[in-house]
Design goal:
By secondary structure, the chain is of the alpha+beta class. Helices cover 16% and strands 52% of the residues.
């Protein structure tokens, strides 16, 4: 059960995922191993559109990203794309 909600600026300690899972795939005829963290993620955006004189425009007004592993989970909320891109970069930096 996910019990934590956060704005995008706060990233909790993220050692989510537990032990990596190794998956073997065939890439270009060779068997290659890939390590994955067992994380469950969901991303959603809310959009709307407006019609002015002769044009129609659509925009996103809310996004949320949920990341969970086992019984630990976090939900991040934001209103602008730059907030999501910033969160994505911070998560990538943490797991790099």
């Amino acid at each position: 059960m996910i019990e934590y909600t956060s704005r995008y600026r706060y990233i909790p300690e993220l050692p989510l995922g537990g032990k990596p899972v190794t998956i073997k795939k065939i890439v270009n005829g060779e068997r290659v191993s890939f390590d994955y963290l067992p994380l469950y993620c969901g991303f959603d955006i809310e959009t709307t559109n407006v019609i002015t004189d002769t044009s129609k425009s659509a925009y996103m007004y809310h996004w949320q990203l949920a990341i969970a592993s086992g019984e630990i989970g976090f939900i991040f909320l934001g209103r602008r794309w730059d907030m999501f891109i910033n969160l994505y970069q911070r998560i990538c930096s943490f797991y790099h």
